[in-house]
Amino acid sequence: GYVAGWPHITVLDEIKGASAYEFYEPSERYSTKSDLFNVRAYGAKGNGSADDTEAFLKALEAARKNGGGIVFVPSGKYSVSSRLEVPQNTEILGEWYGYRTGSPSQINVRYQGGGNDYFIGLSAGSGVQGITFYLPDNKPESYAAPTGDSYGYANGSAYDPTTDVFPTEALGIAPRPYLIRGRGDSVWAENICITNGYNGIDLKSERCDNFVVRGVWGTCMNSGIEVGGGSENGQISCVFFTFGTWWESIARRIDLSCYTYENAKGFTFGNCRNIMALSASTFGLCECLRFVKEGDGEPENISVARALMDTPYGHVCLKIDAGDDLSFVGVSSGTHPTEANGRISSAVTVGENFAGKARIYGQNIWAGCENVLRGDAVVYTGGETSAETISHNFSFGNYLTEFTFGEDSGADVAKTSSPAEKTGCGGTLDSAAFIWVATVLSVCVIKKQKKEKQYEEKY
Fold first, then answer.
1. Contacts of 112 by beta carbon, 8 Å cutoff, 6+ apart
2. Do residues 225 and 268 touch, judged by C-beta distance below 8 A?
3. How far apart are the C-alpha atoms of 341 and 243, rounded to whole Å?
4. What are the distances in angstroms from CA 337 to CA 163, 346, 347?
5. Given this model, what pLDDT does residue 365 score?
6. pLDDT confidence of 385, banded at 50, 70, 90?
7. Residues of the chain with pLDDT > 90: what percent?
8. Tally of helices (H runs) and strands (E runs) in the chain
9. Whole-angstrom distance, CA of residue 269 vs CA of residue 359
């Protein structure tokens, strides 16, 4: 499995100051109970048409009574129409083949909550891993895409993306719940594919210290990840948001990009501190990385490495409106400026009220754009002879030895070290080999538990 702190990446290049920063993968998260609760053993069909809600609820309740365990979701398409609350020391676990392929364990989310609601709630010390989320009701059926000769558009010239206002109302995209909401300490979401979401992962509405988000690829038409609510000591690794997941899989004939250009945000950091992000990237969104004030709090002691951002038509790749002690190592900003129409994109924009400190070490701007810097925000390139660094002093702790489950869960203090074999209701889950995943600019090693076989895939 993971060795805590590995792979360990130290940036050593021509940018002064960059070598002072270190980034590493979070330690592995899993339930300390090896009991397996297969949703098919509780009546789930996984055929895409049957309502499998009751089976999921029964499996989660059985895990709760057991003091935790693994709610296993085998390959299939499971329609679920109500909210799912994951109890402490429990993981919803599906099969996983890779980011572009996603998971064959697909949940068709038919829960109709609004934009501030959520579908899966993660109690303290619980997680979800190896799942593809698909929203059947978030699929425009009769929309005819405008024409235009730019990338992503049908042949023709009726629609000019640089000047025209996109008729987004024709897509019929309505607010949908967050797919995942953290509801306590030490939650995790790993190896997730979001086919056509609206809101992705909420770590803001309720405080979520010591969270891990790793290996997420998908389309969120409004918001990808939001971190706030006073959350501390979180790690984000290998996460990529784009309109392309939906566009390539089920809606290639429909122009989704101009909706995300005007509406979608990738990563939002509000009232949070001590957050490390490795390879937090986006393509074709309105704002990629955002640092904003949330109530009386703002982001503090945040470090991001290897961020690839492509934001066209007058929008912002890296937006810093609030915060302090923010560092960015290796920022690649791609934009599509249209100077004649006054829609110049920004690689970095610092807000007028920003009163903290931000340092960017190494910036690659391609396709042309500009920085809008104010206050104590500095971009260091290869020409500087010296550069100030920010001391972060991250301390994420050890999930397995330091997190104590609440009395209501019936679980003991976490002590186990490795889930060699997971058994229980409805099947056996053997430990797997490694999946090698290269997401955008970074490479990490991810151990996945795979039902009844071992496999290795390299990307």
1. 81, 137
2. yes
3. 24
4. 12, 9, 11
5. 78
6. confident
7. 47
8. 4, 30
9. 16
